[in-house]
Amino acid sequence: MASHSTSPPPAPPSTTSPDRRPRGARRSGAGGTLRNGRGDRITIALMLGVPALLVLGLVWLPALVTVVLSFTRWDGIGGWDTIEWTGVQNYVDAFTIYPPFQPALSNNLIWLVVLFTVPTVLGMFLAVLLDREMRGGAVYQSIFYMPVVLSLALIGFIWQLIYSRDQGLLNSFLAFAADAPPVDWFGDPDLNLYAVLVAAGWRHTGYIMLLYLAGLKAVDPSLREAAAIDGAGPVRTFTHVVFPALLPINLVVVVVTVIDALRAFDIVWVINRGRNGLELISALVTSNVIGEASRVGFGSALAVIMLLISVVFIVVYVATMLRGARR
Amino acid sequence: MHHHDPGPPALRRRTLLRGLAGAGVLGVLPALGGCGTDPRNDPLRITMASNRAQELEAAGMAAVLESFRTGSDYTVELNTVERNAFQESINNYLQGTPDDVVAWFGGYRMRFFAERGLISDLSHLWEGPLKGSFSDGLERLCTGDDGKQYLVPDFSYPWAFFYRKSVFEEHGYEVPHTRAELLDLCERMREDGLDPIGYGNREGWPVMGTFDYLNLRVNGPEFHDQLLRGEASWESAEVREVFSAWAELLPFHQPDPLGRSFDEARLSLVQKECGMLLAGLFVSQSFPEGEEREDLDFFPFPEYDPAVGTSAVEAPTDGFMLSADPRNPEGADDLLTHLGSLESQELYADQDPQALPAHVDTDTDRFSDLDRKALELIDGADTITQFLDRDTRPDFAAVVAIPAFQRFLRRPDDIRELTSDLERQKRSIFG
């Protein structure tokens, strides 16, 4: 009711309705709708403009600079005049004389495929089980979700205790149980990627489980009842009724998994700086640009290649979303 | 009440936006202030950045700064950063607003910063208060390409084969002096059930020590220097010879070095699982003080070619630089002079067992036998090298050399392809 007392008494007599607007910001001659519209427009402009500026300044501008720098040779010291233009030499070098590059490409792909096949399916399975409200469900849920709370760097440290060749838990167990010779989990380039993927998948499973659990809780129970009345078993109910209803969640899971596969970095960095079988594009970019090396131009070229790969997925995702929205 | 609603949300929005703008301005203000009159521009305040973050190192720095404080009116603000993070960010750091005094190493990286004008000339200290404090070898190490000095050294630590005296006594081993004796010793150790040479290279850098020493012994320090400057070819017969000498020694190393961290290799020396370990003096930090540490000894890397000899020693040297535009140049000079003094270096060495003071007048009487022997090794050297990652371009060391050496450890038989690969990448990097 305070608005009444704050509205100025010398209001023009032309307005008849009781002025419920606060503070007499009213301009003479301007109608109520116009004034509101203007305020809203400023608000909208600010609310869109500020984030847009931030996105432009913090995402698009650096991305553009990266693309420009990828055609140069620069050690990151000194001004623009110290930058040397080399054309596409960095890209040629990456594909021809940079041995870690090809393994990095295929490792990123393996990372993506494995994340999709194992932890995603396992996470979904766990979610379905936990959704059945079994006894102690909350406890299991916490256990499976726990790794998600930890950073991948920390997970790297934890799994080093398990995978260490000489002192590790796994080799000690294998020697005890099967009298097996020690396996070089982190050093063997044919093996270490999968060893690391177990650790990364351990975390990813919990994440996916939680996403699906949230999705399953939102599925209308009457759908299941209807399926049950129609005589569908639990498997059939899931594949034919529940899973299709989970479409939005599935999309989120796909996006999350692709993002996780592309930005995988910290765990291999902690283990061996992304070398010797654990090459990932992100690690190569980092060791070229951020580290002591300061090959800003070459590292930028690698980053641009990574950007292009991401763009493929982004286009697919956006196209799917738009098609969904149009329907 | 309902007619009241349209007002407050708008108000709240506006207040929020105003608040956000205010917060933005507040955030910018101190940054602007930094450009003008810095309230921290105290003439009695010196800032310093250090990468000596480990417990013993930090204790050493604290002791040194404490003694500086009692002898002067200055206060020193020390920023300590973890070693690897410090190393990885130093390029950007030196271009920003660095502290007055910055801890760093001798060698290529320091010369590079000097050439790019990221650090200040210190020759007035070398010709003034620090004159005669350091050997000629160290002076060369601290000198930039323009003939001026840019670093005040404070300690070095040599690399050598470390072993436990008790293990050598138990099996009656003799210290090897030549290639043949080294191989012979390895053979005997293997028969006795030991891993002759400990090896851990998950981090990538530790095996650079093996390459450096083999190259120094097979081809001599001059070729080593040319190779790391990018002048000599990696495809040359000399480099191939080094890799074949390495391949000959490789079967006597602990298996699977790529999955083992250097700390784990240190541990196997402590636990007497391996006979010896090529490492820096810092390995003594892994041995508990007292009986255990006294059991540790070393021998220099054996001779491979009598014409080349063993007079080159790999001994990385740490020290301090002055940033390009220090806020307090007088204070920084005083602090650097103090850091270069015998008193300060001995105070530091008392805390950190791996640090051998760089000062010529260092009194070795108070040293342990191991430290005295290590200092004699450095003093007797004709050439002191740093370490591959300090003696060459860091992009070459980190991006090319480490993956190449790792590949060699996996497939020691394709030396020809490896060396031509190294040469191709070297050309692209050295330009």
Short description:
The complex is a heterodimer of chains A (327) and B (431). By secondary structure, chain A is mainly alpha-helical. Chain A has 15 helices and two strands.
Keywords:
heterodimer, A: 327 residues, mainly alpha, MetI-like fold, two-stranded antiparallel ribbon, 1% strand, flat, B: 431 residues, alpha/beta, D-Maltodextrin-Binding Protein, domain 2, six-stranded mixed sheet, four-stranded mixed sheet, 49% helix
Give structural notes.
The complex is a heterodimer of chains A (327) and B (431). Helices cover 69% and strands 1% of the residues of chain A. By secondary structure, chain A is mainly α. Chain A has a domain of 151 residues: MetI-like fold. Chain A has a two-stranded antiparallel ribbon with strand order 1-2. In chain A, helix 3 crosses helix 15, helix 5 runs parallel beside helix 9 and helix 12 packs antiparallel against helix 15. The radius of gyration of chain A is 28 Å and the shape is flat. With 431 residues, chain B is α/β, with parallel strands linked by helices. Chain B folds into two domains: 158 residues, Periplasmic binding protein-like II (D-Maltodextrin-Binding Protein, domain 2, 3-Layer(aba) Sandwich), CATH 3.40.190; 200 residues, Periplasmic binding protein-like II (D-Maltodextrin-Binding Protein, domain 2, 3-Layer(aba) Sandwich). Helix content of chain B is 49%, strand content 13%. Chain B contains 19 helices and twelve strands. Chain B has a six-stranded mixed β-sheet with strand order 2-1-3-10-4-11. In chain B, helix 2 links the parallel strand 1 and strand 2. Chain B is globular and about 65 Å long. The interface between A and B is large, with 46 and 51 residues.
